[in-house]
Amino acid sequence: xxxxxxxxxxxxxxxxxxxxxxxxxxxxxxxxxxxxxxxxxxxxxxxxxxxxxxxxxxxxxxxxxxxxxxxxxxxxxxxxxxxxxxxxxxxxxxxxxxxxxxxxxxxxxxxxxxxxxxxxxxxxxxxxxxxxxxxxxxxxxxxxxxxxxxxxxxxxx
Length: 157
Ligand SMILES: [Cu+2]
Fold this sequence. Notes:
It is a single chain. This protein is mostly beta strands. The chain has a single domain, classed as Sandwich (Immunoglobulin-like). It contains one helix and ten strands; from the N terminus they run H-E-E-E-E-E-E-E-E-E-E. It has one helix spanning 2-18; strands at residues 32-40, 49-57, 63-70, 73-84, 87-92, 96-98, 102-106, 111-118, 127-134, 139-147. The longest helix has 17 residues, at 2-18. Copper (II) ion binds next to strand 8. The site of copper (II) ion has 5 residues, from strand 8.
């Protein structure tokens, strides 16, 4: 079994180097990793929150996050928050690019992953797993930690 898993790993690597991966879905990304992922504690009585993280791309080609999902919530959307005159507003974006040999930070007041329909309250300290799908069809599993965030500002959907 060692030998066959080594071989399939080598095949995956070859495919990634030679051409964009076909959208067969669940292969882990070979170039994009995530660190410092966290989710804002759900405020009392709310089922909406957001996730933040740093995405790093070790590859020579830019990659984009095109989809996010989690078992703990019904719908995840990629969002961007921007200053709009005196106030902040946020809107969905189609993709979040992770530059080649670079990184992108998702943080309060900027890009984030919005979580709708959170199935049960998320309390500080809990571990939550998210799955990001990239534009090459590969996925990144993200272990995130729930954190309290006092003094929340800005629009709420
Ligand atoms: Cu949002």
